[in-house]
Write a structure and sequence with these properties.
globular; single chain; 35% helix; six-stranded mixed beta sheet
Length: 159
């Protein structure tokens, strides 16, 4: 199933929900700058083993809305909370890879593990929370702007 969750911020968050009838649920949060499709191998295997797999595209990426604001860890973790609440999830495993791990870590602290019974951090970028708590990807603003400029100048070289 594919659908959009609309948080109070009016930003639509894209959700792919595989095997929704199963109780063993894993919600996946990917690393920057990907989409839920980074978990394609897990989504191909785990539902066959009886797991419900939910992938979300965080704001600004994949099929979700791309607003100008809201890319701090608090807002990103609030978006996760809105997905969990909208789907009525409880007793789930929250799996975060790279910066998705940092979002998951912030979620656990900010929302007191609401609906989550297990946390899986995969190569999590959680130390960036300590260095730059208001910037989600562990880079300063100038570095991000240079990265963006590189995509305009020579996208194959940047990749």
């Amino acid at each position: 199933m594919e659908y959009y969750i609309k948080p109070p911020t009016n930003v639509k968050i894209y959700v792919e929900d595989l095997n929704p009838e199963e109780k063993n649920t894993i919600l996946f949060i990917y690393g920057w700058p990907g989409s839920h499709k980074l978990f394609e191998y897990q989504f191909n295997k785990l539902p066959k083993l009886g797991y419900r797999c939910i992938g979300i595209d965080t704001r600004g990426f994949g099929n979700s809305d791309k607003p100008w604001t809201g890319y701090d860890y608090n807002t990103l973790s609030d978006d996760v909370r809105n997905v969990i609440d909208a789907l009525g999830l409880c007793d789930i495993t929250l799996a975060g890879h790279s910066t998705g791990g940092a979002i998951a870590a912030r979620y656990m602290g900010r929302h007191k593990a609401h609906g989550v019974s297990k946390l899986v951090l995969i190569a999590a970028a959680a130390p960036s929370l300590i260095r730059r708590p208001n910037f989600p990807y562990g880079l300063d603003k100038e570095s991000v702007l240079q990265l963006i400029e590189g995509t305009y100048a020579d996208r194959p070289k940047m990749l």
